[in-house]
UniProtKB/TrEMBL annotation:
GO cellular component, one term: mitochondrial nucleoid
Gene3D superfamilies per record: 3.30.70.260, ACT-like. Chain A, domain 2
Protein name: ACT domain-containing protein
CDD domains, per database record: ACT_AHAS
Keywords: Amino-acid biosynthesis, Branched-chain amino acid biosynthesis
Length: 351
């Protein structure tokens, strides 16, 4: 009986071992094939390190920094004085406008890191436009600043070394399309009522303290006699400039017909000026209008300066947005290529 029980126990142990032990292969090719076909976890979602991997795969040796014009060589006395006071010789390169286009990862904190690097180098950002592109995880920054070529190139390379930054392009010397948007709120009452409209709150309704003097028949008899005597006493004296200016400012308020005619004339003049610059009026209120205009920076500044005489209440401008032009092959180059290249004039017959 004990022999039977021992045999049954050995059979159960052998069956358990056969279930737990992995199959043994004579070659490793079958094992590799099985590992390759094994299910794997899904790939991770793109994050800020994706830009770092991209730049690592496309690593290239950057060109040297542009040469900076340095002043003449210094004497020993000047060099010692420079070392003592820690004043390095300034560069003679001019400060000019630079346009940087940054392609960054769409995540929080990128803008603060980019602006922090530029602020640490002493750059004042003239304009900054940030918006998400057609790709969900990619944003585009357009930065306009002024500086020397060498210093700006150093800042550009430092920005490109940031982890969430894919690339930084310098569009300073590139043929680009530049556009900027302007919204300006202009008074249609004229510049005389500008200060009064600024006190009127959001509606820009003029709030002028009335300086209108009542007519003579509204005064009492004693007041009229006193004013007449005072005028007779001082009639020989020249009037002071302050008195003349005060009398000029104490004008009677406009009648409704005069105000309507003034608004119509100013509105027509603003419409004519806007049509010349390709702008349009997008809002009309009782005392002001809002004009929208898009174009180059210099054109926007010129239009804004021409609107100021009408009475500029508010203005808002977007930063500069740029897009590089696509080069087009000219017809002359295509004709030369079709003819087989440029013909050497020395090989032609005389005449």
């Amino acid at each position: 009986m004990s022999t039977i029980v021992a045999g049954v126990g050995r059979c159960r142990l052998a069956a358990a071992a056969s279930r737990t032990l992995k199959p043994r292969y004579f070659t490793t090719s079958l094992r590799r094939h099985e590992e390759q076909n094994a299910p794997r976890p899904p790939p991770p979602i793109d994050d800020s390190t994706s830009a770092l991997d991209y730049k690592r795969t496309l690593r290239y040796r950057p060109p040297p920094l542009p040469a900076m014009d340095l002043p003449r060589s210094q004497s020993a006395e000047e060099a010692v004085t420079n070392i003592l006071y820690n004043t390095p010789p300034p560069s003679l390169q001019p400060f000019k406008k630079h346009v940087l286009n940054c392609l960054v990862q769409n995540e929080p904190g990128v803008l603060s890191r980019v602006s922090g690097i530029l602020a640490g180098r002493g750059f004042n950002i003239d304009s900054l436009v940030v918006c998400r592109t057609e790709i969900r995880d990619l944003s585009r920054m357009c930065i306009v600043l002024r500086g020397q070529d060498g210093v700006v190139e150093q800042a550009r390379r430092q920005l490109e070394d940031l982890v969430p930054v894919w690339a930084v392009l310098d569009y300073t010397d590139t043929h680009c399309i530049e556009r900027e948007l302007l919204l300006a709120k202009v008074s249609i009452l004229g510049p005389e009522y500008l200060e009064d409209q600024l006190l009127g709150g959001p509606s820009h309704e003029p709030r002028r303290i009335s300086h209108y003097q009542p007519s003579r028949h509204e005064h009492t008899k004693l007041e009229r006699e006193t004013a007449l005597a005072h005028q007779f006493e001082h009639s020989a004296e020249p009037e002071e400039p302050a008195t003349v200016a005060a009398a000029a400012t104490q004008a009677e308020p406009l009648t409704p017909s005069q105000a309507l005619r003034l608004k119509s004339d100013n509105l027509q003049a603003i419409q004519t000026l806007s049509a010349q610059f390709g702008a349009r009026i997008v809002d009309v209120s009782e005392h002001s209008v809002i004009v929208e205009m898009g174009g180059k920076t210099k054109r926007v500044e010129a239009f804004l300066s021409l609107l100021k005489p009408f009475g500029l209440l508010e203005s808002a401008r977007t930063g500069l947005m740029v897009m590089p032009r696509t080069p087009i092959k000219s017809l002359e180059e295509s004709d030369v290529a079709a003819d087989g290249g440029v013909v050497d004039a020395s090989l032609l017959p005389p005449g």
